[in-house]
């Protein structure tokens, strides 16, 4: 079966998988901003701070001066993307943004445009 993802989006899957595996997190995510820069993160689950991997990626992009997102990959056991993650993607993307959901091995589950 052909890979339905572009080479750039396949790179995001690789980054999200590596980040998730490195810390043993429930979720990994990677984003590409409108300048082509990539950011990858894992779920943060501390007693005093809980953030999804997508929220961490968006915070990193925002703190780096990014003007928005063009692609997002969310990797984990969930079969859908949480509404708060979709909201933050919609608020920060600055236009149309493709969102890919993949399983823990990186196989594409679904894609949508936000």
Structure description:
This protein is α+β, with helices and mostly antiparallel strands. Helix content is 34%, strand content 32%. It contains 3 helices and 7 strands. The protein has a 5-stranded mixed sheet, with helices on both faces. Strands 3-4 form a two-stranded antiparallel sheet. Helix 2 runs parallel beside helix 3. The chain is globular. The mean pLDDT is 94.
**How many angstroms does the end-to-end distance come to?**
26 Å
Largest sheet: 5 strands, mixed
**H/E element sequence:** HEEEEHEHEE
What sort of overall outline do the alpha carbons produce when their principal axes are compared? globular
Rg over CA atoms: 13 Å
What is the helix content?
25-40%
Q: What portion of residues belong to β-strands?
A: 25-35%
The number of distinct β-strands equals 7
Query: Spatial order of the strands in the main sheet?
Result: 2-1-5-6-7
Query: Uncertain regions: pLDDT < 50 for 5+ in a row?
Result: none
Structural class comes to alpha+beta
Number of helices: 3
Residue-averaged pLDDT: 94
Short description:
The chain is α+β, with helices and mostly antiparallel strands and 114 residues long.
